[in-house]
Design brief:
By secondary structure, the protein is α/β, with parallel strands linked by helices. The protein folds into 2 domains: about 160 residues, Flavin prenyltransferase-like (Rossmann fold), CATH 3.40.50; about 250 residues, Rossmann fold (3-Layer(aba) Sandwich). It has an 8-stranded mixed beta sheet with strand order 12-11-8-13-16-17-18-19, with helices on both faces. Strands 2-1-3-4-5 form a 5-stranded parallel beta sheet, with helices on both faces. Bound molecules: cytidine-5'-triphosphate. The site of cytidine-5'-triphosphate has 13 residues, from helix 12 and strand 16. The site of cytidine-5'-triphosphate (CTP) has 13 residues, from helix 12 and strand 16. It holds the Pfam family Flavoprotein.
Length: about 425
């Protein structure tokens, strides 16, 4: 794939070098188009050496090759990371004063902006209006992460990690690729591009949360995210407006295609996920909580790497005790927050093995009642089943007493199609 990596002038420009490496190491051909200001942070030789292509910021270099038109026309993906407030404003108003903005005007491929700036700049109505304009034209604007910014500030405005940006870019390309879309339609009797979810706004969570112990370690789980990504892609293929809250997804994104844009919000921990879901759920018709959420997190985050202690005689084999605290139950919280309102329809997933107290369906029925959601999709899991695999058996349990629907063993996109069929019967005819 031919990728244009636009880099605008923010301190997070250094992270774009890792994103560039991620693309080139996966065999993609990357042309870097920095702005003049970006070169204040990372110089042209770095971009040229890492990409293997010459680098220019203006429209006057190698004019015989008409770069201000060609670079955008030839691209399969344009990603701008970091996208500063200034760059977003220029893109939203269609300016073309340098090579990057000209490229943005000529590109007809998917365009991804990864904003990074101080919280005040991000939240300013001018920036938010520019983001809304860009999204309304089909661009994908990734939500910035929350956390430490330059200096002592913290808040939304951080550039997401390069691995997450890479995953988000692949998801966007997969969602836009007509070949992949056709494959999804052809392979799957349920997943045809029939537009029956057109106008429905959905929020899907996918992947597994990570609970940080120290700067290099976390408590995690084995969720690959494939089922959640398939749910997002099938919904988009059927015309829904999809927000995918992606918990630590990397190679999982790709697979079958879709017909509409998927907005990807990368998150890491259960608390990040809760914040993202709480913000987004106000504007959606359906929430599908497919993510594997850690029930516990370390009580204390250790700011520096936890080290072993060494006694003078080398005999010390002590190990730290990690105290855990409960994470919120996000799904149950959504049900409480909805109250008596009809929307959003809330769908949970339950990974169950079955045990001496009950079968998978029996345990899922108890969980459905405990969580209070409208539909619970019970996944049969075991040591070798489901995690990271491409097929899956699920049972759909409805709160309104409809009979259980069992699907599988089936591909994750078949399962996704069956889940959307189940959700659709819960959506009133005129949505
Ligand atoms: N879930 C959630 N918040 C949590 C834990 C789970 O929102 N803290 C959601 C998951 O996204 C999923 C559903 O709840 O949709 C069920 O997850 P599961 O891990 O099976 O349920 P638990 O409540 O953790 O139940 P248990 O550990 O007793 O099996």
């Amino acid at each position: 794939m031919r990728v244009v990596l636009g880099v605008s002038g923010g301190i997070a420009a250094y992270k774009a070098a890792s994103l560039l490496r991620r693309f080139t190491e996966s065999g993609h051909d990357v042309t870097v188009v920095p702005t003049e200001a970006a070169l204040q942070f990372v110089g042209a030789p770095t971009w040229a050496a890492l990409s293997g292509h010459p680098v220019a910021t203006d429209v006057w270099t190698a004019v015989d090759r008409v770069p201000h038109v060609r670079i955008g026309q030839d691209a399969d993906l344009v990603v701008v990371a970091p996208a500063t407030a200034d760059l977003l404003a220029k893109a939203a108003t269609g300016q073309a004063g340098d090579l990057l903005t000209a490229t943005l005007l000529t590109a007809r491929c998917p365009v991804v902006f990864a904003p990074a700036m101080h919280t005040e700049m991000w939240l300013h109505p001018a920036t938010q209006a520019n983001v809304a304009t860009l999204r309304s034209r089909g661009a994908h604007v990734i939500e910035p992460s929350s956390g430490r910014l330059t200096g002592a500030d913290t808040g939304p405005g951080r550039l997401p990690e390069p691995e997450d940006l890479y995953a988000a870019c692949l998801a966007v390309v997969a969602a836009a690729d007509p070949a992949v879309r056709a494959e999804a339609a052809g392979d799957d009797p349920h997943g045809d591009v029939r537009g029956d979810l057109r106008g429905v706004r959905v929020l899907v969570t996918a992947g597994g949360t990570r609970e940080a112990l120290d700067p290099v370690r976390y408590l995690g789980n084995r969720s690959s995210g494939k089922q959640g990504v398939a749910l997002a892609q099938v919904a988009a293929a059927r015309g829904a407006e999809v927000t995918l809250v992606a918990c630590n997804l990397s190679a999982a994104v790709g697979g079958s295609g879709s017909g509409g844009a998927i907005r990807v919000v990368p998150v890491e921990s259960a608390l990040d996920l809760q914040a993202a879901v709480t913000t987004a759920c106000a504007d959606v018709d359906v929430v599908v909580m497919c993510a594997a959420v850690a029930d516990f997190r370390p009580k204390h985050y250790v700011e520096t790497k936890i080290k072993k202690t060494h006694a003078a005689d080398g005999s010390d084999d002590s190990a730290p005790v990690i105290e855990l605290v409960r994470n919120p139950d996000i799904l149950a919280g959504l049900v409480v927050g909805r109250g008596a309102a009809a929307r959003p329809i809330i769908v949970g997933f339950a990974a169950e093995t079955g045990d001496e107290t009950g079968s998978v369906v029996e345990l899922a029925r108890v969980k459905l009642a405990r969580k209070g959601c409208d539909l619970l999709v019970a996944n049969e899991v075991g040591a070798t089943k489901t995690f990271g695999e491409d097929t899956n058996t699920v049972h759909l349990l409805f709160a309104d007493g409809r009979p259980v629907v069992t699907v599988g063993p089936a591909t994750k996109s078949d399962v996704a199609a069956a889940v959307w069929d189940g959700i659709q019967v819960l959506l009133p005819a005129a949505h």
